[in-house]
Amino acid sequence: DARVTQTPRHKVTEMGQEVTMRCQPILGHNTVFWYRQTMMQGLELLAYFRNRAPLDDSGMPKDRFSAEMPDATLATLKIQPSEPRDSAVYFCASGLVRGQGSREQYFGPGTRLTVT
Amino acid sequence: ELKVEQNPLFLSMQEGKNYTIYCNYSTTSDRLYWYRQDPGKSLESLFVLLSNGAVKQEGRLMASLDTKARLSTLHITAAVHDLSATYFCALRIQGAQKLVFGQGTRLTINP
Question: Which of A83, A116, B34, B94 could form a disulfide with B46 if both were Cys (CB 3.0 to 4.6 A apart)?
Fold first, then answer.
């Protein structure tokens, strides 16, 4: 049963600390997305990668957020320094793009981040 | 700017009743998705609609797409409590892989 996995599932940290979230996409998928979900803003795309290359990170605050794919099985989202307004659920999703594009995006369980 | 708007945002209904959730969007797209999210859980893909007039059904849920009207609907037939969840529509921006989500419709089905 192929699934997107994310770690940690929950993270509580103090303002100013560095936070790293990890995602393992479904094996064979070539596109990875990072979303943030909050009550106020809903679901927002932060960044996405295709074949490990960043295609769009326009939704991400560049001064404190960074996203990378060190290899095809790992995507990371880092916040440094973290702020209380970063508190949200961060979802990773993966898909397989061929030709016209992927049929579906499969979402991981999310990382619930609380910054105090 | 692409906007995806769902209506209603909150819906409370009785078991056995029928209802429709609407998803309007502001620009052309080649793909529309419906997702379900249970409280504290991830998003589960329900339907992918690829073309004008597309209709897909799974159990008590049926989704349709009218690209000329820029409207998709999710129809619930004879609702049961297990369908209580938040439902999102999402639009794929043409030429890109990114999705833009609607605000979500929180559906509560009362026995």
Answer: B34
